[in-house]
Design brief:
Layout lengths: L1 H37 L5 H16 L8 H32 L1 H16 L4 H48 L5 H25 L13 H55 L14
Helix pairs in contact: 2-7, 5-6, 5-7, 6-7
Length: 280
């Protein structure tokens, strides 16, 4: 009986030690899991969330965001500014035409007298129609160029708004500020040139029946050259606006990416240290 009792006691001790070891191992696994769960290693979703936050901030959706009422007020102010610009422009054109009124009236009277000297009635009618067409084509061409200028001015208002928002968020916009000034100067130069062109009137100087064709070609060629020169300034303004828009886009994109990377690198990549089992 003594040896059976001894065997039973030894078996009980072995079972107890086994259960204790399993419980301890479970505690170690739980501790390791908790440490790993507390680690601040950023996941892709965390990084993307931060990137989206920065993107929204730069767009003005998080910091300094405008309410619907603010946006409506800004649009109203923009429309009012554009309307005032058009009124001023129209007044300038009328002023230039008024200044040249006497000269243009004299040229028109001279043109009418020259037409009377033509013997071919068909040529007279053609010359009159071409004279009217020159006025219409000049008006249509300058109106289209003014529409481009108006669109560029609207784009510049948006660009300046985004630059102001970037400055508020601590972004250096020195390069973009210079680009804005350059674009504004280009737009102003183009607008002034269009205004002068719109005020011009093209009167044919008629010689006689034999020179009428060349007389018409001369004035038509002059108008085409004037319009081409004016449009080159409009093209330069478009390029200047495109450049500052691209510069701003690149700046915001770079800032957004660098902000996300800085956030990721600032997060400590903590890894749970191995836990040593105590020696029993």
């Amino acid at each position: 009986m003594s040896w059976k009792l001894g065997f039973f006691i030894i078996s009980a001790l072995a079972i107890g030690l086994s259960l204790q070891s399993q419980a301890y191992a479970q505690d170690v696994m739980t501790a390791t899991t908790n440490l790993t769960a507390d680690s601040t290693t950023p996941t892709p979703s965390t990084t993307m969330s931060r990137k989206d936050e920065i993107k929204n901030r730069l767009k003005g959706n998080t910091l300094n965001s405008m309410t619907t009422e603010d946006k409506s007020s800004e649009k109203t102010a923009s429309n009012a500014a554009m309307s005032e610009l058009r009124r001023t422009r129209k007044a300038e054109i009328e002023k230039l035409r008024l200044e040249n009124k006497s000269e243009m009236a004299a040229k028109k009277a001279e043109f009418e007298e020259q037409l009377k000297t033509l013997k071919d009635e068909t040529k007279k009618q053609i010359a009159e129609k071409i004279s009217e067409r020159l006025t219409t084509s000049n008006t249509n061409a300058t109106n289209r160029m003014f529409e481009v200028i108006d669109k560029l001015n609207e784009i510049m208002l948006k660009i300046e708004s985004k630059i102001d928002n970037a400055k508020t968020n601590g972004i250096d916009t020195t390069v973009q500020d210079a680009g804005v000034q350059n674009a504004k100067s280009a737009i102003e130069a183009a607008s002034d040139a269009i205004t002068e062109q719109a005020a011009k009137e093209y009167i044919i100087t008629v010689g006689d029946d034999t020179t009428l064709r060349s007389d018409v070609e001369t004035i038509v060629s002059q108008q085409k050259q004037d319009l081409r020169t004016t449009y080159e300034l409009v093209r330069s303004a478009k390029q200047a606006v495109r450049q500052v828009a691209k510069s701003l886009k690149d700046l915001l994109k770079t800032t957004m990416n660098s902000g996300a990377e800085a956030t990721t690198s600032a997060m400590p990549n903590t890894v749970a240290s191995p836990v040593a089992l105590p020696v029993q």
